[in-house]
């Protein structure tokens, strides 16, 4: 279905796997990538062995010593060229993302656009890696802080955003002077191959050392090697909370640094002063976009009792209009889940809802028949629940939207929203200024992202992305997230002929 796109992206061989630069190798077992769209084999890759990994790290160490000496604006120029190459390959890469992961083609294109946007951001950043000048308490002393690259940055990414999250980390890390080693999800390996190929082409054209950007393939054992490795200064891991806890334990034990982007359990609060038209579009896209497989997916809708029935009716009507099917067909809103294990998690969640006393008002189920042969297509579900249900407290990576009624003022709704373990994204729908400001205040949302009159998903790269509590506390992408990829150094220069001590301490002899 996407042979032309694979050829355009340079994926014409089945011998991909481990890579430093544009050199491909791998001694591990072969594993296959099947599309959830139609169940067909897309391609095969070689898993990385311990020996492959060691080779990659050694080359990354050598590359770092050279790469860090290139002035930051010149590193930014490399990223500018990478962004231009992504513009050329946008349609092909977007289609591969859609076909291998299962999200709509429009969302696939949007993901590649995120890559392009972060390239633009990183190019500007390459001339803005600012430190601060600090006034010293000692005469004829100058004090300032500055930032230096860390070294090797390990990136462990998830299947749901198979290219954008890597780019968020890679573009910032490279501009900061680091080198990267990427372990992508084994569920979307060919997207990773395509990205590595595109960047390697740019690096080779500029005669940049092999090892600035490397790829290691395989299961969690490869991720464990990255987490355990003292030579990897920073591990940026995206995935489940359970996975993040394990990564954090291992990296913290060696006093390494982490950026953790973990689970979400995101809510939209709908108050009596909400614009229900805006609410409807935001909630439906937030709940069913990417078939509910975003960390920022809208999981819970917390609705005031006075408008609850009206909101419920509008949602049920909207869900009747959702079209499911091949995500490469622009007429369809929802594609498949990533694999049959995800389908099993979805069906188990529906059983749990019923066991705990929830009421399913838009029925789910696995779709069968023509166009659904992969067995990965499921119906989006709406259920009436209580926030304390065990199933509601968990993140189910599927298109299941929970409706929760609240009474009283917006403070009660905020309390419900915050009463989960995760703290990624949140939103309030209101035209009431006081409600909006309370939601954004220290008494409001406890999430890393808090929006007013837009949904929980669809973050722009200009702001720092990440969340609190079991979401991990990490920040990626915009704002000053770049500082996580660098080490901070405070410098004091004495240009006097005396040695005055801080705090007025005397030490004469």
TrEMBL record:
GO terms for molecular function: aldehyde dehydrogenase (NAD+) activity. Residues 28-490 form the Aldehyde dehydrogenase domain. InterPro entries: Ald_DH/histidinol_DH (IPR016161), Ald_DH_C (IPR016163), Ald_DH_CS_GLU (IPR029510), Ald_DH_N (IPR016162), Aldehyde_DH_dom (IPR015590), ALDH7A1-like (IPR044638). Signal peptide: none annotated. SUPFAM superfamilies: ALDH-like. Keywords: NAD, Oxidoreductase. Its EC number is 1.2.1.3. Homotetramer. This is aldehyde dehydrogenase (NAD(+)). It comes from Empedobacter brevis NBRC 14943 = ATCC 43319. The gene is pcd.
């Amino acid at each position: 279905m996407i042979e032309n796109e694979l050829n355009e992206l340079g994926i014409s061989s089945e011998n991909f796997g481990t890579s430093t630069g544009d050199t491909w190798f791998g001694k591990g077992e072969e594993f296959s990538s099947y599309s959830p769209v139609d169940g067909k084999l897309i391609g095969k890759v070689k898993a990385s062995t311990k020996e492959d990994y060691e080779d990659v790290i050694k080359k990354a160490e050598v590359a770092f010593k050279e790469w860090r000496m290139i002035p930051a604006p010149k590193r930014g120029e490399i990223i500018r060229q990478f962004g231009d190459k992504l513009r050329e390959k946008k349609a092909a890469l977007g289609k591969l993302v859609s076909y291998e992961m299962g999200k709509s083609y429009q969302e696939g294109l949007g993901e590649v656009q995120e890559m392009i946007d972060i390239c633009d951001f990183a190019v500007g950043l390459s001339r803005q890696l600012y430190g601060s000048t600090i006034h010293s308490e000692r005469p004829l002393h100058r004090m300032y802080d500055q930032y230096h690259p860390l070294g090797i940055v390990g990136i462990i990414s998830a299947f749901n955003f198979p290219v954008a999250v890597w780019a968020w980390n890679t573009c910032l890390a490279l501009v900061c002077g680091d080198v990267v080693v990427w372990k992508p999800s084994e569920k979307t390996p060919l997207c990773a191959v395509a990205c590595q190929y595109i960047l390697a082409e740019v690096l080779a054209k500029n005669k940049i050392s092999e090892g600035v950007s490397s790829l290691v393939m395989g299961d969690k054992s490869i991720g464990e090697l990255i987490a355990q490795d003292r030579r990897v200064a920073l591990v940026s891991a995206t995935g489940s909370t359970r996975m993040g806890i394990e990564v954090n334990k291992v990296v913290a034990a060696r006093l390494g640094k982490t950026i953790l982007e973990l689970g979400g359990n995101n809510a939209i609060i709908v108050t009596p002063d909400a614009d229900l038209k805006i609410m409807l579009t935001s909630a439906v896209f937030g709940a069913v976009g990417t078939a509910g497989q975003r960390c920022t997916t809208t999981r819970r809708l917390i609705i005031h009792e006075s408008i609850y029935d009206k909101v419920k009716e509008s949602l049920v009507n909207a869900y009747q209009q959702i079209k499911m099917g091949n995500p490469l067909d622009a007429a369809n809103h929802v594609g498949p889940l990533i694999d049959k294990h995800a389908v099993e998690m979805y069906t188990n969640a529906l059983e749990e809802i019923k066991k705990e006393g929830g009421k399913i008002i838009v029925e789910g189920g696995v779709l069968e028949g023509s166009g659904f042969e992969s067995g990965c297509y499921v119906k989006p579900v709406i259920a009436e629940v209580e926030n304390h249900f065990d199933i509601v407290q968990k993140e189910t990576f599927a298109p299941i939207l929970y409706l929760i009624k609240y009474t009283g003022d917006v403070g009660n709704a905020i309390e419900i929203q915050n009463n989960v373990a995760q703290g990624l994204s949140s939103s309030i729908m209101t035209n009431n200024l006081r409600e909006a400001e309370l939601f954004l205040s220290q008494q409001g949302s406890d999430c890393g992202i808090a929006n007013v009159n837009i949904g929980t998903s669809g973050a722009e790269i200009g702001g720092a992305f990440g969340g609190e509590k079991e979401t991990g506390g990490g920040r990626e992408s915009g704002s000053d997230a770049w500082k996580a990829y660098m080490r901070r150094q405070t410098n004091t220069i004495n240009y006097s002929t005396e040695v005055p001590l801080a705090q007025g301490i005397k030490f004469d002899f």
